[in-house]
Amino acid sequence: ALRQAEPRVDLAVLPEGTLTGAAPNGRAVGLIRRVCRANRLWTCLPVTMPVTDGRAQTQILLIDATGEVRRAAGPVLPGPRGSRLAILRGADAVDADRARAAAEAGAEVLIRLAAPDAPFADIWGATGEAQAFCNLVITASLAGGGGGAPTQALVMHVDGTPTAAGTGPAPLVAHLRPDLVRAARRFWADARAQSRAGRLDTPCDIRDRTLTEAAR
């Protein structure tokens, strides 16, 4: 349905609670992998698995457009169209050190997931904004979606301004530009070098400069 409504979508991010009581190598995940392959769609899929002591454990899978599960030894995963992704969940999603480590490892898009009962819902937007600007990264945040709780989605541009936001069951579609992340990082690296040399004379508006840089 998403592919039919938005044929240009490359990546779908699903909220926690989408798939419960399943195994990463089970039939349900296998079906989603086939759907990804048939629609040439990447999917970030939280899988909540029951464990022996009665507590649930969630594993985040990144399925590519061929239906394969992507894995990485570090915090960064390859994404669609050559982008670089990092996925943080729960308390890690609002941790400044985790976000900085992911950005320093090369992440251009930071996907942040939280359960419906997360205790930090009131700072969800503020941390997404701060992480985007401070780390020159796009943040895509998705909280809720299970147990009847409304889904809260928020996408922040590399300059910390909102690209898209929504609450409710309808999919939120956002146009992400990882190339602007790369341009912003080049700009700020040059600005720091000029500052150290005592000849900094550049505008402070990241968006204008990165759009100009990306257009070259």
Describe the secondary structure blueprint for this structure:
Layout: H1 2-5, E1 11-13, E2 19-20, H2 27-39, E3 42-50, E4 56-63, E5 69-70, E6 77-78, E7 84-89, H3 96-104, E8 109-114, H4 124-135, E9 138-143, E10 152-156, E11 162-167, H5 178-196, H6 206-215
Parallel strand pairs: 1-3, 2-3, 7-8, 8-9
Antiparallel strand pairs: 3-4, 4-5, 6-7, 9-10, 10-11
End-to-end Cα distance: 37 Å
Cross-sheet strand order for the largest sheet: 6-7-8-9-10-11
Beta-strand proportion: 25-35%
Please count the helical segments: 6
Regions with pLDDT < 50 over 5+ consecutive residues?
none
Write down the Rg: 18 Å
Structural class, please? Answer: alpha/beta
- How would you state the average pLDDT, rounded? 84
Q: Give a short account of the largest sheet.
A: 6 strands, mixed
Number of strands: 11
Structural key phrases:
216 residues, alpha/beta, 6-stranded mixed sheet, 5-stranded mixed sheet, 6 helices, 31% helix, globular
Give a structural overview.
There is one protein chain. This protein is of the alpha/beta class and 216 residues long. It is 31% helix and 25% strand. It has helices spanning 2-5, 27-39, 96-104, 124-135, 178-196, 206-215, and strands at residues 11-13, 19-20, 42-50, 56-63, 69-70, 77-78, 84-89, 109-114, 138-143, 152-156, 162-167. The strands form 2 sheets. A 6-stranded mixed beta sheet has the order 6-7-8-9-10-11, covered by helices on one side. α3 (96-104) packs parallel to α4 (124-135) and α5 (178-196) crosses α6. The mean pLDDT is 84.
